[in-house]
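Example 218, ligand S-adenosylmethionine.
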Amino acid sequence: MSNGDTTNAGADGDLSPSGFWEARYAESDRIWSGRVNPVLADLADELTPGTALDLGCGEGGDAVWLAQRGWQVTGIDLSGTAVARGLAAATRLGIDPRQIRLHSADLSTWTTEERFDLVTMFFLQSPVEFPREEVLHRAGTFVAPGGHLLIVAHAAAPPWMGAEHSNHMDFPTPEGDVAAVGGDGWDRLIVEVRPREAVGPQGQSGELLDSVVFLRRH
Ligand SMILES: C[S@@+](CC[C@H](N)C(=O)[O-])C[C@H]1O[C@@H](n2cnc3c(N)ncnc32)[C@H](O)[C@@H]1O
């Protein structure tokens, strides 16, 4: 899962989205914890497994967790390195490859005719170019009737980030994300900001704020 880091620039100065994220993943063998995001674990446990789509799946922590619980998972991420790590984790855990499909693609243009029982988007935020509102709108169209859409985002800078960085950052709000998804065919199950205890890169503990949007399509 994310540790709240949204600011590092690509070491080589390449700020194209793919250059930025590949440089970020090249910094270490593993960037995220590999564990499921706790909000997903809480909410998906209540759902009957079906098909799931994880947008911006990163190193696959959430996709692998869903596959282990019987979901048929598709994950999309811009970074081929991140996708390869997710697939390697699935193989290590003995997950049937038919249960988890992870692809490298740019969500600013990626689309599909498939409709999913659960579409998730965790911390799909980027300091470089990313048409987040458009992607949110498209994410809503990927949800099957009766299916769920779960969007979790950093709602504020982490307390350990200096004001010189955080003052220039924009953060999503739950209502803003609902508006970007659009349409009136949704039940609003959760639309709120939630606090979460976390540990920063230097071991500092602090509270992060997550925007949580959980919708069910009529
Ligand atoms: C903060 S990480 C979150 C990863 C994962 N969802 C998690 O919670 O650990 C954001 C992810 O979005 C991906 N990303 C950024 N821009 C993208 C784009 N245009 N298309 C697809 N993925 C993108 C990055 O490669 C990165 O893996």
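Summary: The mean pLDDT is 92.
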